[in-house]
Amino acid sequence: MRSISDSDSCGSEEEMAVKKGPWTEEEDSILINYVNIHGEGHWNSLARSAGLKRTGKSCRLRWLNYLRPNVRRGNITLQEQLLILDLHSRWGNRWAKIAEQLPGRTDNEIKNYWRTRVVKQAKQLKCDVNSKQFRDAVRYVWMPRLMERIQASSYAHGHDKTNNNMCNTNNESSDEAKPIMACDNSLLVSSEPQSLSHATTTSSCNLIGDGRLSWDSAENNGSMSTTLWQHWDYSDLQAFEPAYGFGDADLWTDENICFLQHHLAHDF
DNA sequence: AACGGACTCAACCGCATATTG
DNA sequence: CCAATATGCGGTTGAGTCCGT
């Protein structure tokens, strides 16, 4: 990055006129046109040159989270949820880093998802979202169940996956990073975690060289299923949309909450 | 229909880091 | 090396919307 070279037009009165709040269509249009011509970056000078009474930060955020091509909005798919849970278990609140693995998703959206869905469930379970108990619950209960549902969805809809349309209306471009996730039917999943009591680690499955996830058997001590993450290929995040009836609301059922509460009460 | 609480998500804020002169 | 500035990131807020009563 560089310092802006212009020193003329950033007077203090202009600072006073900085606009905040929701962006208008006109502002969006100005920003899009300007970036299309001049490219991204130099946000402060961009804001001034384009005539936007916004801070550079605001312009950058608006572009990255909303106006940029390829931004995906709308429901987080099961595959994306699974990946978020997995990556968060390893990287914590590194939202930008996690977002890199979910093409089209922004750190802001993932952060919002985490706060509105996952943290909410932790509260229902009366445990801290960063506690070992909750992390283990996510790892050994929610993630396997997510995979079950993904697999079920795969079997139900696998033959016409290529015709699936995405919920969002944004265009996908060919130069976007290759999505990490795809489901293939070789996935093996245990139907129930036998126990939570031997969960002693916080990391879960591992991304291996070719982009697949594999279960780390070294961590897989105790009674946990060893067949959980046998063959997980991520290449089509959009294959299964909540429209098929497997939205996240379907995942966090009362039944599952009770199941978790039972284990949290007895195993920890 | 009206109200209030819960929820969502776009946007802002503060801080840390990177870059430039 | 240092100060000034830009950028990036994570946490937080609050307006709009949804939903139950």
Automatic annotation (TrEMBL):
Species this protein is from: Flemingia macrophylla
Subcellular locations according to the entry: Nucleus
InterPro entries assigned to the protein according to its UniProt record, in alphabetical order: EOBI/EOBII-like_plant, Homeodomain-like_sf, Myb_dom, SANT/Myb
Signal peptide: none
PANTHER family: EMISSION OF METHYL ANTHRANILATE 1, MYB TRANSCRIPTION FACTOR-RELATED-RELATED
Family annotation (SUPFAM superfamilies): Homeodomain-like
Listed GO MF terms: DNA binding
GO CC entries: nucleus
Limits of the HTH myb-type domain: 15-71, 72-122
A Pfam family annotated for this UniProt entry: Myb_DNA-binding
Protein name: Uncharacterized protein
Keyword Repeat: yes
This protein's record includes keyword Transmembrane: no
Keywords recorded for this protein, A-Z: DNA-binding, Nucleus, Repeat, Transcription, Transcription regulation
Compositional bias of kind Polar residues: 1-10
Limits of the Myb-like domain: 15-67, 68-118
Residue ranges of the region described as Disordered: 1-22
Gene3D superfamilies assigned: Homeodomain-like
